[in-house]
Design brief:
The chain is built from 15 helices and 15 strands. The strands form five sheets. It has a seven-stranded parallel β-sheet with strand order 3-2-1-4-5-7-12, with helices on both faces. Strands 6-15 form a two-stranded parallel sheet. Strands 8-11 form a two-stranded parallel sheet. 44% of the residues lie in helices and 15% in strands. The protein is of the alpha/beta class and 363 residues long. It folds into two domains: 8-74, no CATH class; 78-362, NAD(P)-binding Rossmann-like Domain (Rossmann fold), CATH 3.40.50.
Length: 363
């Protein structure tokens, strides 16, 4: 049989005859006087160029098989549901869209084209509107929950609404916050540390974790929780803060802070879908060990901006917002040993200083 080695012009000429070949094959298969093989042979003898017979037959059958294979693969892809598909979710999509058929939930119909272009099937639903979530029921048995709690109150009604429609025996990765630990006095802690939320924002996250744990036990599902610190990337740096001259704490009052690059976080979420242990918490942090004002200085130096002025804590209270002050009142260092040993995570940006060098070198 002749292999497909003809040039592009020959292939274009042959493609036009493909539909005729398909029609002849179907006619031969349904004939009453002869078998399909004889019917195809009669037709083939009528072709102007007899040397093309085998090529057309093999080429047409190959096309049919390829189309069937692609369709089968699409149908067999497991489904993944992403809730809260913002910056991190958009970074996650390229990592999972080849392996999953991805459904991305948005409450804004205006984002449908953006999500579709990124490789997801957009679904308009609102976690604050339980009636809108019916379309999500049993849509997928693998879920990434990136949606934050409401901005008020001490409970996360959104996670409650979500668990009401999730299937049994599902796999869910929840992206929480390291703020659930509260102030640890700069101590180095691992995932066995008890939570001690000290502001409403962190208390809502603890509530969400508890709601999801109860759902996982009740439904026989596999839940993993990634506790995430400050997320940074080229477009997520404190540039505006530095331009405004917002003050930072002096060294003796400063607090330890933790970091993760947005791309590393997206990769961790993907890995957790497959490798995380049931009802297990992981610190999604990098290897950096630095205080908050040192981070601001590192960004300022590379961006060519003045460093933030340093103030004593008592003076700072009158110069910053209550929310910013809450971040500057908690000091902790988080171990990522479990993340590396159990999930096998390899950080693309292990240290903030090295990452900033790379980010500003690109810009």
């Amino acid at each position: 049989m002749r292999t497909m080695r003809d040039g592009p012009i020959d292939q274009l000429a042959l493609a036009g005859a493909a539909s005729a070949v398909l029609a002849a094959i179907r006619q031969a298969h349904t004939g009453t006087d002869c078998c399909g093989k004889d019917g195809f042979a009669v037709f083939a003898r009528e072709l102007p160029t007899t040397r093309l017979n085998c090529y057309l037959e093999s080429h047409t059958i190959l096309m049919m098989k390829n189309n069937e294979t692609k369709h089968a693969r699409k149908l067999k892809k497991p489904r993944l549901l992403i809730l809260g598909c913002g910056d991190v979710g958009m970074r996650l999509l390229p990592l999972v869209r080849e392996r999953f058929r991805v459904f991305a939930v948005t409450s804004q119909a205006s984002r449908m084209d953006e999500l579709r272009a990124a490789g997801a099937v957009p679904v308009v639903a609102d976690l604050d509107q339980p009636a809108s979530l019916a379309r999500l029921a049993r849509l997928a048995d693998m879920i990434v929950h990136l949606a934050p709690p409401p901005s008020e109150g001490l409970t996360d009604r959104r996670s409650r609404n979500l668990t009401a429609i999730l299937p049994d025996q599902a796999t869910l990765v929840y992206v929480s916050t390291t703020g659930v630990y509260g102030d640890c006095g700069g101590a180095l802690i691992d995932e066995t540390r008890s939570v001690n939320p000290q502001n409403p924002r962190a208390k809502r996250r603890v509530d969400a974790e508890q709601v999801l744990r109860k759902w996982a036990r009740r439904s026989g599902s596999r839940l993993s929780i990634l506790r995430v610190p400050g997320i940074y990337a080229a477009d997520r740096l404190p540039i505006e803060r530095l331009k405004k001259g917002t003050p930072a704490l002096r060294p003796e009052d400063d607090v330890y802070t933790n970091h993760i690059h947005a791309d590393d976080l997206a990769a961790m979420i993907k890995t957790a879908l497959f490798r995380a242990q049931p009802c297990r918490v992981y610190h999604a942090v990098d290897d950096s060990d630095m205080k908050m004002a040192d981070y601001f200085d590192a960004v300022a130096d590379r961006a060519g901006l003045p460093r933030a002025p340093r103030l004593p804590r008592e003076e700072l209270k009158a110069a910053v917002s209550p929310m910013l002050l809450s971040f500057m009142s908690e000091s902790r260092r988080l171990s990522n040993t479990r993340l590396k040993s159990e999930l096998g995570v390899r950080l693309q940006y292990p240290q903030v200083h090295d990452a900033l060098d790379r980010l500003f070198a690109k810009s």
